[in-house]
Amino acid sequence: MKAEGIDIVSFGAGEPDFNTPEPVCDAAIEAIRAGFTKYTPTAGIPSLRQAISAKLERENRLRYTPDQIVVTCGAKQAIYNALQVLIDPDDEVILISPFWMTYAEQVRLAGGVPVIVQTHHKAGFIPDYEDLREAITTKTKAILVNSPSNPTGAVLPRATLKEIAGLSVRFGLWIVADEIYEHLIYDGLRHISIASLGAEVLGRTVTINGCSKSYAMTGWRIGYAAAPLEVAKAMSNLQDQVTSNATSFAQWGAVAAMNLDPSVIETMRSEFQARRDLIYDLLTAIPYVSMAKPQGAFYALPDISAYIGNELKSDSDLASYLLERAKVAVVPGSVFHGPGHIRLSYAISRKDIVKGVARIAEALSQRMA
Description:
By secondary structure, the protein is α/β, with parallel strands linked by helices. It has two domains: 9-18 and 263-368, Alpha-Beta Complex (Aspartate Aminotransferase, domain 1), CATH 3.90.1150; 22-258, Aspartate Aminotransferase, domain 2. Helix content is 40%, strand content 14%. The chain has twelve helices and twelve strands. Strand 3, helix 4 (102-109) and strand 4 form a beta-alpha-beta unit. The longest helix is centred in the C-terminal third of the chain and has 23 residues, at 262-284.
């Protein structure tokens, strides 16, 4: 539709609309000009693994040695590697829904079985302890935690993280902690890495992170995992047979990212918070739309179930309706195991947020006319 010249407001993109910070670009360009364009060790160049180790101790209170860190082609590969080495056929992995759809598919690719623990926007998408406990069986091998969350924007409080950590230790479960949105957090909240809650849980956690979201480096494809040594070695061995190293000069850019002045990240974070406030106010002003206020990441997940019915039988149908009628692109909540919702990324300009939500409001009002 865009190719045909149609004015589409897209809330679909899950990536920052900021340029990659200049110090990161400069470091990669310098590496290219210095001829750093060859293979590197599969797990990453020593300088980057050391920089990640220092970052994790400085910012997350996590002590991982460089040989416990594996640099990957994006955080998605880090999660894939972790599940491949931890999960055997028929093992169960607990997922807290709504969740990034890749999690379930990667569990299945490892031969595992996703077990869904549902959350609700009225509870801020925070999982209930009893629901988590009841989901554990003799086949449960791991629980995947994503905070801040895509698609909900939920930030798990310390109390909930302690409950999950306790279940991990009690039942011998692995935790795969996706922390890719850690710096994009609002209202004075602080990110807590679940592995920082004690030595026992540290020994059962694979901490996943990367450069894509906090540093506006989605196309650079630099992620990483920090894990107990035997797990890190297994993940590196697996990656050696799949992709080998992440791009050599991009790794030098990542070294610069790990050492960026915090003000660079704060500029992006504060703008996302302002956009969060704007889109929340606009969406909740629409009749019959309700939602939890996102506390992190850059996604809104409003409940639009009141507008589903008759010829629009699902959130997917409603998303198609909004594209055709309002010229607005959103992602159906059912993609994330969150039926009755739509996901809107507010990694777009404030002007487009205002224009796009106004179009949505008008199209939905016609549903009730």
